[in-house]
Amino acid sequence: MLSSPAPAFRTNSEFTLSVTHSPPSAAQTVSAHPIRRGRTATRASGLAAALLLLAVVAVLSIAVGAKALPLADVWPGLLDPDADEYTVVHQMRLPRTLLGLLAGAALGVAGAVMQALTRNPLADPGLLGINAGASAAVATGTALVGVAGLDGQVWFALIGAAAVTAAGYVVGGGRGATPARLALAGAAINATLYSYVSAIMLLDTASLERLRFWTVGSLASAELAIVGTVAPFIAAGLLLALAVARPLNALALGDDTARALGARPALIRAAVITAVTLLCGAATAACGPIVFVGLLVPHLVRALTGPDLRWLLPYCAVLAPVLLLGADVLGRILSRPGELQVGMVTAVLGGPLFLWLVLRGRVGQP
Questions:
Q1: How far apart are alpha carbons 206 and 194 in whole angstroms?
Q2: Label partner for 91 (CA 20 to 30 A): which of 11, 220, 284, 306?
Q3: CB atoms within 10 A of CB 99
Q4: CB–CB of 277/182 below 8 Å?
Q5: Burial class, 236, CB count within 10 angstroms (exposed 0-12 / middle 13-18 / buried 19+)
């Protein structure tokens, strides 16, 4: 009589693999879809609410100033050339508001991608020396070349930001750059260039007077020509940052994991640094260095969206202008008939708010 074959038993490792890698059941897949759709709908609704808030703040930015405009007069001031408010709105308030929208979006998105790239929650647009490069170039142009107008300073600042960012990338290791080396290279460049700017301002009193207003960070000198000059650079930087959002999500898991997912870490870092250079160089050129916007807004937004950059970046592009324009409006209200520059207001408000986030435990690894 033939004995029946012994039953086949799987080892523990084989059983573990089969359990770990078994595909989800149809019920699990169906139940996951409503959760995902609900999360997406919630984020989309939040983004729509943020856009509505931005529209309200933009209207306030046009209405509030040394000469307050009733809200009912804002629309005629925008569209009716015969209205008494048309000149005030188009020559002063509208350029200032547009520049605040552009600069805020640039700083917020630049801060978010810098924190993701360096995996450093304290990273901001000045980490790679971009603001320092723009400041040093403007100081050099003002003291040695005699550049006085914002139209000339914009180009000096863009060139300085690009040159210093390229230098920081090379010093940080080039294609083999790591987040730690990039941060250390940026810190060294920052210290050196800001010392250089301080030396120029102390040795040349004429340059000190011309640079004093610019180095504070302000929207008060906005002109439509300046807005038109920096808008293409900021638009290109925003599009590039949004384009690398998905691969940058993979890079946040580590270089080896990113390569396994098909991403190219060196190419991603180069794209992010290019985007940050365009964004911060243009914003700093037009407004001067403005602190805390690029550092604070990504942390506030991350509490709403999570770490997914595909949602984090659009939220930052909307809510960072809300913060910047809101601070600008507050500075005009607090010091009437004069005004506090927006860079001072963001510094005063940003410090305590960031400390509050730290104490609440909301500042962590991006």
A1: 18
A2: 284
A3: 27
A4: no
A5: middle
How far is Cα 165 from Cα 274, in angstroms, rounded to an integer? Answer: 8
Chain-centroid distance of CA 277 in Å reads: 11
Q: Are the beta carbons of 324 and 294 closer than 8 angstroms?
A: no
Structure tokens at 142: 């003002």
Q: Give me the helix-helix angle, 150-171 and 179-203, nearest 10°.
A: 140
Give which of 284, 344, 324, 341 is closest to 153, Cα–Cα: 284
Distance CA 39, CA 33 (A): 10
Q: pLDDT tens-digit profile of 179-192?
A: 677 778 878 888 88
2 against 258, higher pLDDT: 258
CA distance 355 to 365: 16
Tokens, residue 8: 């086949």
Helices 224-243 and 309-334 meet at what angle, rounded to 10? 150
Nearest to 126 by CA among 198, 177, 169, 187: 187
- Residues with Cβ within 8 Å of 92's Cβ and at least 6 positions away in sequence, in order, are 65
Q: Is 96 in contact with 61 (CB distance < 8 Å)?
A: yes
Confidence tier at 209 by pLDDT (50, 70, 90): low
Q: For residue 319, give both structure tokens.
A: 């809510």
> Tokens 């202008």 map to which residue?
321
Q: Give the model confidence (pLDDT) of 141-157 as tens digits.
A: 888 887 767 677 778 88
Contact 323, 104 (CB under 8 A): yes
Return the closest-CA partner of residue 112 out of 270, 284, 305. 305
Integer Cα distance of 190 and 277 in angstroms: 15
* DSSP reduced 3-state for 36: helix
- Spatial distance between the Cα atoms of 161 and 276, rounded to a whole number of angstroms: 10
Q: Which tops the pLDDT comparison, 69 or 28?
A: 69
At which residue do the structure tokens 């990113």 appear? Answer: 258
